[in-house]
Amino acid sequence: MRLHSFKVTLLDQIYYSLLLVTISQIVHTSHIREICEKRDIFFEPFRCQLYDVDVLDEPITYLLYDVNPSEGFNLRRDVYIRMAVFLEFLRTQQGYRRAKLVLPPWSNLVHWRSHNIDQTQLFWSHFFDLRSMKQYTNVIDMDEFFAEYERLHGLDTEVMLDEVYKLKHFENMFENGVFVDKFEEHVCPKSHDYDAGALAYFGYANFSTEDFTCLHFQGSAMLLHKLLETYKSPRIQHVRYVLVLNAEIVLHDLWGNVDYWEARRSMRFAPELIEVAGRFRADLLDSSDQQDRTVRPTRWMDERGHRNARGGDYLCAHIRRADFLYGRDKTTPTIQSAALQIRAKLLEQGLKTVFVASDCSRMEFYNLKNYLKRFRVVRFVPESYEQRLALKDGGIAIVDQIICSHARYFIGTYESTFTYRIYEEREIIGFPKELTFNTFCKSEKDMNCEKNTVWPIVYH
Questions:
Q1: Is there a contact between 167 and 244 (Cβ–Cβ < 8 Å)?
Q2: Among 120, 152, 315, 456, which residue's CB has the most CB atoms within a 10 Å radius?
């Protein structure tokens, strides 16, 4: 009896040990979403058992997209959320359960002023934590896409896209006063986007297509599913490559809902940028996550709603200048007016330091400091040319946003996407709403001006 019992116990231990190893492998590799074929189930079971066998019969759909070149960094982040939420829905639909979203590189955006450094074809991993984003849905950077394309089609092969859709607004978006989700094909105007099969896509010379379609489009991202079904080839495809141009035209399905916030929370910044911002906070603002009560879980999925973040002993002001001085002059304050509003909030909050995130000129910043002589005014400037070269303009802007998102009090610019991204970061970190959703007025004498909309975070 004892011998039999010992054998059973030993077998149970072996069984549970193997079970734990299997579970750990699945958890460890759950963020990896590579190409899996039926034969891979036997050779690489831990990676491919995440798919059902019937899913492996479906084609892999690579969904690429682009945004109008005139759009800035922070609006492009918002367009990504629309596409990511759509992809997560698409992957629940039969025939698309192996779909992947290919992230468009960043290239010489209109607000990037450092023309003496190379800022072309930058991957998302330069600015964001791709591992974190992949935990929301199946996204891949452009270099990963090229690697997978080579795996499927061989080295030095031109990327042949099956379908390219160039979106454009309807001239009359409200028929009889009603906005209706729809798309409609129209004749493509002469354009440099497409010429005899060759395709202009972020300066890459290896993209081409034989199917370029121009569409008037209005509606939410979910309407793209109908578009993909409408133009789907009747022939059997093992892999499908689709490019959507001018994806900014596609609207959110429900802006600010749970899906939106899950995708947004997954967009954590690259560790290198967080480290740079952390050093600045520690050295110049005496700020750290522990003492500021801004510590976040390692994984965004483990975040829970709370409002007890304290922030560092400084105020952050985002003062948008440049094109806002002309396009939004009726709501954009002068430097003097901004300084007076900052001064009032510093006194109100009992703070002596203001961190400034702004695209203002050196002279404007000098004037701002003169208006705030009794207070400490600081801004982030790269320590050297080498650091600027490493960060790029987009990285510097993100460092500004990280520092602002950890301030005790934040005040931003009316209708600025840069400001809205900071609002979101502070919502995720867990600040009281009254310390976050604040907006500069045109004049310090009119503090009852129209303010930015308050969109609080939503959890399950």
A1: yes
A2: 315
The angle that helices 417-429 and 258-266 make with each other, rounded to 10 degrees, is 90
The DSSP bridge partners found for residue 184 are 216
Distances, alpha carbon 122 to alpha carbons 104, 128, 272, in Å: 9, 11, 15
Of 88, 255, 240, 278, the closest CA to residue 162 belongs to: 240
Q: Could you tell me which residue, 442 or 237, shows the higher pLDDT?
A: 442
Q: How far apart are CA 57 and CA 111, in angstroms?
A: 45
- Domain edges within the chain: 47-249, 269-435
* CATH of region 269-435: 3.40.50.11350
Are 87 and 81 in contact by the 8 Å Cβ rule? The answer is: no
Please tell me the predicted confidence (pLDDT) of residue 39: 42
- Which residues belong to the active site? 71
Helices (H) and strands (E) in the chain, counts: 15, 15
pTM of the model: 0.87
Q: What is the mean pLDDT of residues 406-434?
A: 97
pLDDT digits over 369-405, tens only?
A: 999 999 999 999 999 999 999 999 999 999 999 999 9
CB contact set of 92 (below 8 Å; sequence gap of 6+): none
- Which helix (H) or strand (E) segment is 196 a member of? none
Torsion angle in degrees (nearest 10) through CA of 21, 25, 26, 28 = 130
